[in-house]
Amino acid sequence: MSQIGGVQSWCLGVTLQLVLAAVLHQGFATVAPPTTAQTTAAPHKEPGRPEKGIYHVTSSNGTTCLLASMGLQLNITFSSVSQNKTVQDVVNLQPNVTVSSGSCDSESASLRLTTDAEKTNLTFFFSLNTTSNKYHLSEVSLSALWPDMKEPFSARNRSLDYLRGTLGYSYMCREEQTLNVAQDLSINTFQVQVQPFGLTGDQFGAAEECQLDEDDMLIPIIVGAALAGLVLIVLLAYLIGRKRSHAGYQTI
């Protein structure tokens, strides 16, 4: 029976190692930045999870050429009138007061989101590589004039590489991401699904999920497989021990 106990202890140790490895893998996958663009955690001050909006861009012939569904949160650093110092504010984009517009052509597409109440204009630019049939978010610009701002805010970055997808497919990421645009601007995205090229009608194409979502699915698979293996090995050890016990009785 001591052998059975040893086998069970060994199995438990292996299982714990597998679970720990899975958790560490998830941790590294979440915080590790992509090779071409850095993703960091959102600031601590948050107004709550933003509402998800659905935004369309229509081509000259009246068909939808860009479709996006996402919740957006703006992190802006600016000079405050009331506090007389530089502050960081976090604001949710409200879909019910946001108007979408933009443009599409064979290799580029843009989505402009405008809110008149807060005088905010946020524009996403997507680029398509016609050789590889891959697209990505290549540029973001924001202009804003909020009541507490000493002067109008403006930020732009033309060398981004986020939301990468394949022509004819939509990019999807359920996990929260933070897109670093400039030193004084980052954007938190929630439950993103976007397709700037290759739309058929008003529906998204098949989704290509982001790495964060794939890692989230990997954890329960690893843990489940480890536990199943543990149960199987313990059962085999029990059956072997029981067989040996019977053999011992017969010898006596």
TrEMBL record:
<feature type="signal peptide">
    <location>
        <begin position="1"/>
        <end position="21"/>
    </location>
</feature>
<keyword id="KW-0812">Transmembrane</keyword>
<feature type="disulfide bond">
    <location>
        <begin position="173"/>
        <end position="210"/>
    </location>
</feature>
<dbReference type="InterPro" id="IPR048528">
    <property type="entry name" value="Lamp2-like_luminal"/>
</dbReference>
<dbReference type="GO" id="GO:0072594">
    <property type="term" value="P:establishment of protein localization to organelle"/>
</dbReference>
<dbReference type="GO" id="GO:0031902">
    <property type="term" value="C:late endosome membrane"/>
</dbReference>
<protein>
    <recommendedName>
        <fullName>Lysosome-associated membrane glycoprotein 1</fullName>
    </recommendedName>
</protein>
<dbReference type="GO" id="GO:0005886">
    <property type="term" value="C:plasma membrane"/>
</dbReference>
<feature type="domain" description="Lysosome-associated membrane glycoprotein 2-like transmembrane">
    <location>
        <begin position="219"/>
        <end position="250"/>
    </location>
</feature>
<keyword id="KW-1133">Transmembrane helix</keyword>
<dbReference type="InterPro" id="IPR018134">
    <property type="entry name" value="LAMP_CS"/>
</dbReference>
<dbReference type="GO" id="GO:0005765">
    <property type="term" value="C:lysosomal membrane"/>
</dbReference>
<dbReference type="InterPro" id="IPR048524">
    <property type="entry name" value="Lamp2-like_TM"/>
</dbReference>
<keyword id="KW-0967">Endosome</keyword>
<keyword id="KW-1003">Cell membrane</keyword>
<dbReference type="Pfam" id="PF21222">
    <property type="entry name" value="Lamp2_2nd"/>
</dbReference>
<keyword id="KW-1015">Disulfide bond</keyword>
<dbReference type="InterPro" id="IPR002000">
    <property type="entry name" value="Lysosome-assoc_membr_glycop"/>
</dbReference>
<comment type="similarity">
    <text>Belongs to the LAMP family.</text>
</comment>
<dbReference type="Pfam" id="PF01299">
    <property type="entry name" value="Lamp2-like_luminal"/>
</dbReference>
<keyword id="KW-0732">Signal</keyword>
<feature type="domain" description="Lysosome-associated membrane glycoprotein 2-like luminal">
    <location>
        <begin position="50"/>
        <end position="199"/>
    </location>
</feature>
<keyword id="KW-0325">Glycoprotein</keyword>
<keyword id="KW-0472">Membrane</keyword>
<keyword id="KW-0458">Lysosome</keyword>
<feature type="transmembrane region" description="Helical">
    <location>
        <begin position="217"/>
        <end position="240"/>
    </location>
</feature>
